[in-house]
Amino acid sequence: MQFSGLVIGGAMFLSIWGGHVGVRWLEAHSVRVWPPALLLFLAGAGLNLYALFGSRDVLLGGLCSVVGFTLLWDSLEVYRQMWRVLHSHAPANPANPRHAAYLAAGKGTLVDLLKREPQGSRYEPPAPQAAAPLVPTFAASCPICHDASCILSQRRAAVLRQDWNAVQGWRTTEVQA
Amino acid sequence: MNWAAIAMGFFSLGIIGLGFFWVIRMEYYLGYLWWPYVLAAGVLLLGGSLFVADAGWSALLGIFGGSVFWGATELKEQAVRAEVGWFKFRSPKQEPPGVERIRKWHAPHL
Question: Rounded to 10 degrees, what is the CA torsion of A133, A95, B79, B37?
């Protein structure tokens, strides 16, 4: 019996599964999108470099490469997930300041439209909700010291203010259009 | 340098890309209720890889089987995406054999 196929095929399915769930979670919980994307890219690239230069075994190398390419794909999927949230194709997380800013700008939804059984006919999703009464305070606490006056807190608050200004810009453009 | 390993990675990337295409087309023409047959095809391909003597060819068959297995779990979500208007919707669709029994089963999704 040759178990290479079962091992690599199973690993590929599990890494796609983990990628699906992980990308949604990372995008929903990250204030900035690029750090998880960069982390996934580096992990994927590292696994592929190990597969190419570090492993002599076809099974181990193949396993690393298959999982590595899945992680590289996931690094792009983080951005695609952000697009889905912005276009109401995936639910926003109001606890995430970036998503809260989307909702406040009238973008995104809290409804998960994919969480239903297919009916066999066209379905009209509910109209996007009105702008949520969420106004960011731009106060961010440092994940390490939890002190609002530390430099990391101030940096995070500046990032939130930047996001807020960006989505305000989109709203103004849409109203003018 | 282990080029065979990287070739497997590229193959998996291509087969995942192809997976997105065939899942959309299959759901459009046949519908998501074919999922048990697709799932069975994935299991058969993964099982078949056990009987291929060469490790490389067995791995490629396993990757193909894994992607077909994943496609079976993606059909239901694709059906919902088409129903809400994110993809083209077509009705009626070709129903699979044993459709009444399949309707009672919970379609898997990731």
Answer: -170
Q: What is the pLDDT of residues B51-102, one digit of tens each?
A: 999 988 999 999 999 999 999 999 999 999 999 888 999 888 888 998 889 8
CA-wise closest residue to A52 among A40, A64, A38:
A64
Q: What is the pLDDT of residues A101-120, one digit of tens each?
A: 888 888 888 888 888 888 88
> Is-contact A73 A104, C-beta < 8 A?
no
Choose the closest CB to B50 out of A1, A113, A114.
A1
ipTM: 0.90
A48 contact residues in B (CB cutoff 8 A): 6, 9
Look up residue A22 and give its amino acid: G
Helices (H), chain A: 4-29, 34-49, 58-86, 97-104, 151-176
| CA–CA dist B67, A16 (Å, integer) | 9
